[in-house]
Amino acid sequence: MNEEMEIERLRLETPGCSERIHLNNAGAALMPKPVIDAIKDQLDLESSIGGYEAAAEREQEIKAAYDAVASLVGTNSRNVAFTENATISYIQALSSIRFETDDVILTTRNDYVSNQIQFLSLQARFGVKVVRAPDLAEGGVDVAAMSDLIDGERPKLVCVTHVPTSSGVTQDVTAVGELCRAAEIIYLVDGCQSLGQMPIDVEKIGCDFFSATSRKFLRGPRGAGFLCVSDGVLESDLEPLFIDMRGADWVGGERYERRGDARRFESWEFAWSLVLGTGAAARYAASVGLDQIETRVSDLGKTLRGRLEGLDGVRVLDRGSDLCAIVTVWVDGWEPIQLVQELRKRKINTSAQVRSDAVLHYDERGATGALRISPHYYNTEEEIETVFEAVTELVALKK
Questions:
Q1: Shared-domain flag, residues 356 and 249
Q2: Residues 252 and 343 in one domain
Q3: Torsions phi, psi for 24 (to 5 deg)
Q4: Share of the chain above pLDDT 90, in %
Q5: What is the pLDDT of residues 283-326, one digit of tens each?
Q6: What is the per-residue pLDDT for 361?
Q7: What is the DSSP string of 31-95?
Q8: Any domain includes 90
Q9: Cross-strand pairs, 331
Q10: What are φ and ψ of residue 251, in 5° steps?
Q11: 191 Cβ contact list (under 8 Å, min separation 6)
């Protein structure tokens, strides 16, 4: 994986590598050719024989997509539900909990902005209580404090984002899972930014729900995601609030029967081309090897962080004992979106974060946002040096 010829092969299988330096993998990674082909082939088939007919003809390939995703995250295909995106996955899980007034949702200060907004919406509508566990001094959720809060608050649900969108820290979701299992509390993990850049085993994590997207480090298409659902949930009466005919059968005028597998969390209509693309992305990641991917992206992130930390006028905002491939920085004199625009002129893709993307995180760091640079395994050391030189040049323009 780390050999020059292997990286070159992976880059040749990634058409976008010839167009620009793509360091926005935490937003949407470049798709490899097998993923692109899977999507195009299905669209071609739909255009020639019809959408319903194409889905029927590709039944075995669709089943293989469930199998590929399940294998990638350490579960079974019956535990996988495909969705339109990670937010829908998260909402389907969250809506299955029958909240009542004064129920507690225990989460972290690093959970994703949409998740935080949904918690607050539940607080406003149902009177639930949102409790956030504190961070460790070095960054990331304090698991010991979360243990105390589980004992003291007896939450109905615990939610943790594995890798926050605004930081390179990797939170210890497995340690939290052990607490939840011991206390028999439902546990929801947001794996949007971790899937595809490190090994994931939902059984080891111990979560009841694991939501994820296809477009980020997994290198699949936009507009596709999935939800992993534990056997414990499937054996219970939990179901999404707005279950539809995909997730249940209408068996009587006043009665329906929900499915016994994770498809109860799906909805009827799918872009099957994107499902097939997600399956191809899962197989591609497995073929490269998640352990090798994790080593490669961590090394690239560490190299970039180290270079930027030594640059006058740049402040690296990441904090934690276990940092991954997401690098966030504040550059004096520049708003993050301006930096993104300037870097795009140099054919370098990055992304900008603003305060509202992670209010607690940015307020604590005294920043109104960040330039987010997120390399993947197909990026090269030369590309890391190029972006460092570009940032150095932009810093000098404001002096």
A1: no
A2: no
A3: -125, 45
A4: 91
A5: 999 999 999 999 999 999 999 999 999 899 999 999 888 999 99
A6: 87
A7: PPHHHHHHHHHHHHHHHHH-HHHHHHHTHHHHHHHHHHHHHHHTS-GGGEEEESSHHHHHHHHHH
A8: yes
A9: 314
A10: -105, -10
A11: 73, 162, 163, 200, 210, 211, 212
